[in-house]
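Reviewers of the previous submission asked for a worked example of the structure-prediction workflow described in the proposal, so we include one complete record here. The input consisted solely of the amino acid sequence. No template or homolog information was supplied to the procedure at any stage.
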Amino acid sequence: MNQKKSHILAIGGHAGDLDLTAGAVIAKYTQSGHKATFLHLTPGEKGHPRLSPEDYAQQKIEEAHQFAEIVGADVRFLDYKDAELPVNDQVKYEVADVIREVKPDIIITHWKGSMHKDHTNTHYIVEDARFYAGLPTIERERPAHFAPKLYYADNWEDPYGFEPDVFIDIPDEAYETWVRAMKVYAYARGETSGFPFIEYYKALTIVRGAPAGFKRAQAFAVPKGALVKRQRFFE
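From that input alone, the workflow returned the following structure tokens.
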């Protein structure tokens, strides 16, 4: 890989989505001197069986900041509610403004084939926001910036039609950092739905890594027409 430093922008429907599905790769990048930013479009606050959405939103925001600190990333939120994320130009331009501000080389987001509407909506929001951000003729506060690379994360809730194309090797240090970071999320620990998120995503790194010849990997799909690659970093 060349010496140019990259900036990853991971855009998820809820706090925790891209943390689990791409967090190991992000830890790898930040540990190699690159930058990363998480953009959560909602906190994902309506999934707790005991806490009110307001209380759980505050908890999820705090957890997201803790996760980002552990993996060495920045974090920010848009002001939308869980299960109510719209697909309209307002939110697309808000995301485009963040793209223009942080100037990522790489964007990671949801695959479109999801059982969760916020994930599907995020996919389409990012698709247009990336386009809007890159158009100089769209005048906003900041100048245009086009993010050349777009990847879709491997999420168990986004399985329909998902076919991984790119497998990124995860070294031990990045893996251990990511596992430590995942534990800050109560939902990842199984305290909301009972689903063993941490164990699932830990195991998935082996499942995705073994066929590619890696000890561990995280997998990503790419927009139609891109090549399947086995690589150690995003290209």
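The mean pLDDT is 95. We consider this example representative of the routine output the project will generate in years two and three.
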